[in-house]
Amino acid sequence: MEEMINYILRFGSITPQQIDLIKSKAEVIHLKKGTYFSEANKLAKQVGFITDGIIRVCYYGNKGEEYTRCFVLENRFVVDSSSFFNDTPSSEYVEAVTDCTLLVFSKSAFSELSNTVKNWSDVFTRILTDALMKKVQASNTLLNQDATTRYVKFLELFPNVANRVPLSMLASYLGITQSSLSRIRKNVS
User: Fold this and answer.
1) Where is each Cyclic nucleotide-binding domain found (predicted)?
2) Which end of the chain is more exposed for a tag (fewer CB within 10 A), N or C?
3) Angle at CA of residue 110, ends 105 and 116, nearest 5°
4) Each residue of 33-90: pLDDT tens digit?
């Protein structure tokens, strides 16, 4: 819980009373590997803070091919923001890559925090903006690079992720085949 509060405080000041309210609204949940936090074609109903584990945002193509858009690591918030804030069905899946523990705010709890904690909306907007900027920065770093360079850059950006996610998901994120990634890993090691 303290990791979440410390993370929130990086984006704005909150009083001790507000912190107590935030803590009281968070519910601990455990997701098993392969379980969805939110699903495509459904409304996202919660915001989570990952205390343990890795989650990915993914979608499936017309022929069932899997595309990993991003990975979300410990001590970060995860939400399908478009679905959650606009009450529209999601176009993506938010899936536990590993067993995960999250602190979760339901839609009603989040709404209550927005109405009660004076600058909650501003703070959370800053959190979402920071996450989006980091996601774009990571994507731009990988864009227009050859496959080996993308893998090496991924290792630099996310040093403790490659050995915790399945090869198929990492290959999907990097936009290469699993067999190509296997060859690259052998050559880079």
Assistant:
1) 10-113
2) C
3) 135
4) 999 999 999 999 999 999 999 999 999 999 989 999 999 999 999 999 999 999 999 9
pTM of the model: 0.93
Encode the chain in three state secondary structure. CHHHHHHHHCCCCCCHHHHHHHHHHCEEEEECCCCEEECCCCCCCEEEEEEECCEEEEEECCCCCEEEEEEECCCCEECCHHHHHHCCCCCCEEEECCCEEEEEEEHHHHHHHHHHCCCHHHHHHHHHHHHHHHHHHHHHHHCCCCHHHHHHHHHHHCCCCCCCCCHHHHHHHHCCCHHHHHHHHHHHC
